[in-house]
Amino acid sequence: MFAFHGPSGRLVARSVSLGLLALTLSSTLVLAKATQAPPAQPMQAPAPAAGLASIAAPAAAPTSPQPHTIAYDRYSLIIDGKPTYLWSGSFHYWRLPSPDLWADVLQKMKAAGFNAVEIYFDWGYHSPRRGVYDFSGIRDVDRLLDMARDAGIYVIARPGPYINAETDAGGFPGWLVTTAGKPRSTAPDYTAAYREWMTEIDRILARHQLTDGRGTVLLYQVENELYDDSADTRRYMQDIEDKAHADGITVPLIGNHNDNFFTGVGAVDMPGYDSYPADFDCTRPERWNNVYDFASERKRLTRSPLFFPEFQGGAFDVWGGPGYEACRKLTGPDFERVFYESNIAAGSTMQNFYMTYGGINWGWLSSPGVYTSYDYGAPITANRTLTTKYDQQKLIGYMTQAVPSLARTDAVATSAPDNPRLRVNARVNPEDGTRFYILRHADATDTSNDTTHLRIALGTKTETTVPQQPGTAIRIDGRDSKVLLANVHFGKQDLAYSTSELMTQLSLGDRDIAVLYGRHDEDGETVLRYAAEPTTQVIDGKVAMHWDAATHTLRLNYRHDGLARVAVHQGDSTLLLLIGDNEAAIRFWQLPTQAGPILLRGPYLARTAIHDGDRLALTGDTDAAGEIEVFTAPDTRGFSWNGVPVAANVTASASLQAHLDGPTPVSLPHLTTWHISEAAPEIAPAFDDSAWKAADRATTPNPYWNHKLPILDADDYDFHHGNVWYRGHFKATGKETAILLGANTGVHLGNHGIFTAWLNGHFLGNNPSGAQQFPIDPRWLKAGGDNVVSVLVENTGHLQEEHSGTFREPRGLIGASFAGAPTDIRWKIQGNVGGEALPDPIRGPFNAGGFYGERMGWHLPGFSDGRWATTTLPRATDKPGVDWYRTSFRLDLPAGQDVPIALRIHDIAPHHYRAIIFINGWQMGRYISDVGPQTDFELPAGLLNTHGDNTIAIASWSTAQDGGLGEVSLVAQGNLRSALHVGTVAAPDYEQVMQAQRALSKPAKGDATK
User: Fold this and answer.
1) Prediction pTM value
2) Average pLDDT value for residue range 616-632
3) Environment class of residue 973 by beta-carbon count within 10 Å: exposed (0-12), middle (13-18) or buried (19+)?
4) CA terminus-to-terminus distance, the chain
5) Is 398 strand, coil or helix?
6) pLDDT tens digits for 687-715?
7) Which residues, in sequence order, are bridge partners of residue 658?
8) Are 280 and 321 in contact (CB under 8 A)?
9) b/e per residue 822-859 (b: at least 16 CB within 10 A)
10) So which residues are the catalytic ones?
11) 54, 613, 731, 899: which has the highest count of C-beta atoms within 10 A?
């Protein structure tokens, strides 16, 4: 099945005969025509994204609509007739609730050579209740997709309905828990629900499609990792595809269901494979698995490319885990080289890495197993700083875009290396003869270092052994990989081969430039073909030259050490070779402009470039003072950096070189004085819970409730996220000897969920998920009178859904009974005020739970804590319960600097408490002292006021007699002079939220807000 649009944009055909379909797909499948040029290389310079420094640019002439196509064959995607290597990374906007920072991440991805970003759209994030959808503010998907367009990057859209992603319920909304119908099936109730979501999200995605000429949405994923192959599942998949088409989706429909949905009912246009070869065991980052070559998968794919919608870009960490630096080591630069280049060897031309930026599980976004940070050990950290993994992805990514021939290759036989410990895979472009040799250890887990010579085909008739220089060899270290090229034509150049790797190449006027690199102190050899002996000049470094008149080749031999420069002239052809080690190569940046690409060297990050007459306007970041070098068109006379003109000199390499300032040092305020208040009045028997909901329901559509009545599942009372209080009233007989309490807190991948209980104000104890019998001191009971058991239950999130309904597993209390007497209990329940009816829709359904302080607005700026007692930290307490701590501070960071800041909680030894951290009303962290591992919690700019007043509120739940709160401080996680400008995210203050809350519920007696 496929769709195409006629001139009017109306859907004029949907299906063809199987015979015609096979014939069409055997060449290329033209899916749609559009009206806007795609972001192919070279591309127009993007306009500055919202939140970034504005740079004056000449007015663009109006453009008329142009027809464009998206197609594919067994080799690659084909965009406007051009085979395209898709180099993509995953990013979750909903894990970064500061929209100006979305542009920052997208620009960093583009700068690293990514031409696509893969984005999940979280149904539950946008829909707090049935029929209500929010796409404004931090949920403004239109703005996000415009930013992707402005950054010049394609979008792979993944709207679910189910997304997994280690997020609450796998992206299903909380209200879906209490509906009937098997999820991810054709069940009517589920169908009605997901069609509601698709209608809302598809209307946004459709108007940003590349095929509509209004955006860069390139592909649309149908469902997610759905491995069931039953008839009903196939029908469900087909229904989603039909719905997407009916909603105006015209880009190819893709899947990540591995061997499912290739053909038949529910088949997607382009199937894909998810692969995580390092697994997720960050506790053993040194352990590697061997490489799987995907040979059978490649053979099976006769009509579409070998596509990895998710290939491992890191790993999630779990409560009590080793921390994300271990995950970053597990999937570090060596892993990226070996495994990503092995995918190239397998013939893949579509690789997306999960994740490239992971972000933050702020609020209660996470599924039970993972903690606040979703850093993922990704190339871009949760605080948006760049890592060595980013550098490595950039090196490979630039190459995939610099050598278009890579998008269309066949495997070819080649001579084995002379070292049997090594392995080489060869691929050739069948049209132009460009060859790619991917060299690594035969056993990818091998850590030994070896050398070898290769037999490389020169053209179609001859081979030669390389390197040719006597006494030299190709070195390949353990857990390393190299992609070596032969028979490459770029600009006016003819590269016979190089034992260095190509990072990038570009043409500037009558001059070609290429950047080659290798590991530090390794030998390199590059051979170029010329009709006659050229004039060669070594500008920098030590490079030996040899001209072979018989073969018309110029051979260059050198050692990778810093940066060498060689100029080669012949006739009207000029080549500047920039030959460096890895450290030198990663300081290069290639940026598109409306006049063609340019090359930069030096800064921490290069963002945008715009030609303005004979000058360039550049934006980017510096982490220290240093030089910048710009390789641009010969008629360029100078440039500015972040809007400020710089004094530049012309170098011997015909480049412009200048000095850039680094950031000024910053100091952060000390958090010395805190206001404190006890905040668990629900423990006291006299507490007024008359306004709470009665937990007395006898029926539920949720098939997972298989416990005694009444139904106590918090979801049945619209409390889907955060901590929940229960108060059970009973008339004691005096014979009660113990109480058995059962709760489900969402334990998964660790026993970190908990509940605590009190009887008439006396602490009973705590327990994780499951049942616990607590003994009762008879003196605690009021025989014949009203007695109260108070239970505070943590909800660590809903399980992710596979195919059975596990996301509906109850949360909260699941049962209570007395030993010694059959005493009945009447339960009241209270979570976040309003339940699904949010008093704070800006921060949304995941931000606040059922703590008293949350219900009273103590987490919000504007609340007056002047009557509270003061204290310093650390502070210990032997009283189980909840205490709130508040402090304020002022920031005035230097203008034009990006300083990621985190809040750190430090305990000398573990204590039994868990803290919830709010910055200016936004819940940005959950800390568990005796579980860990996270101690630093990112405070994103936009939520954090970097030029004004800020409020920190921390709710500390002491679950035993050794609680309290550790030392709390602010830490700078980086410091950059930057083009980035971040506006404050608008959100309601205390008075606004409390006014909305009063409209939703009657305040309890003793309301501390009065």
Assistant:
1) 0.93
2) 98
3) middle
4) 64
5) helix
6) 999 999 999 999 999 988 989 999 999 99
7) 628
8) no
9) ebebebbbbbbbbbbbbbbbbbbbbbbbbbbbbbbbbb
10) 225, 310
11) 899
